């Protein structure tokens, strides 16, 4: 079961350090002319995308029992390398694979997978400023996607058998683990005024009116809760059931007030541009492969849950729908009137 992770593919392979080298060797293009003025509190004072991103950067509560913290991208790239493996209908899928073995399909032996505690060291959040278009025409809508990165997504403990009113008849196993985890919080602005906030959760999410009682504010900053292990974003500290399994078991996320991550403190802002055109410290946005190891350990859990013990690493921001400038509905929200997703 574990052999596929212990033997690296003989196909195309190159070190993740190559991505690091690209990032560090190419100097970031001069941006001083477009940098906003900075006020005494360190927040850009001009009415620009960067200023909005800093002003409304979310405060994220991590669960009190969280074991897998966020990280900067460069630390992850320095501990992985690119391998090409067949995957579904793509015979040449690229994966960023850990340099050292995981230990097993649900193990996390490489220490860097633990991430970095944001209460002890600054951990960046990557804020993408997207000016929305409708059929190629500019609109008065701007989305700021706050992309957060975690080196590891801890899966769920699930009953393999029948989950009765008295408990699991059978045994428990974990599934849905994966190396690499991209999460997103989006704030939508209409004429530079925040109107909605969208919280990504697994294959969907929730959208709320900005300033409503549903999402608390600390000044201008929304307060969001990151689920233990999965890091899905929620508006409160609670148990959140997001899937009912055929055997009667459920998949649940738990949020709480453990470690506070003020994303304003180490925010990195970039404007949307076509993937493949980023340079300097943003070169990693050109990568179109998967951010993690290929899936493994699928025999028992995949027929029940549709997932393996170790799932494929996720796609990066550039391949997500929210990254694209075309107008689109937010998570769980209807499409804006008079707009087209094309």
Task: Describe what this molecule looks like in 3D.
With 342 residues, this protein is mainly β. The N and C termini lie far apart (43 Å). The model is unreliable at 1-18, 20-47 and 337-342 (pLDDT under 50). The longest helix is centred in the N-terminal third of the chain and has 10 residues, at 16-25. The protein contains 5 helices and 18 strands. The strands form 5 sheets. It has a 6-stranded mixed β-sheet, covered by helices on one side. Strands 2, 12, 13, 14 and 17 form a 5-stranded mixed β-sheet that branches. It has a 3-stranded antiparallel β-sheet with strand order 1-3-4.
Task: Offer a quick outline of the entry.
This protein is mainly β and 342 residues long. It has helices at 3-6, 16-25, 49-55, 73-77, 301-305, and strands spanning 13-15, 59-62, 80-87, 90-98, 125-134, 137-153, 156-164, 167-175, 178-190, 193-201, 204-209, 217-218, 221-226, 233-234, 239-244, 250-254, 259-262, 267-271.
Structural class: mainly beta
Count of domains = 1
Tally of strands: 18
Shape: globular
Instruction: Give me the side-by-side strand order of the main sheet.
Output: 11-10-9-6-5-18
The biggest beta sheet is recorded as: 6 strands, mixed
- Please state the oligomeric state of the protein chains shown: single chain
Please count the helical segments.
5
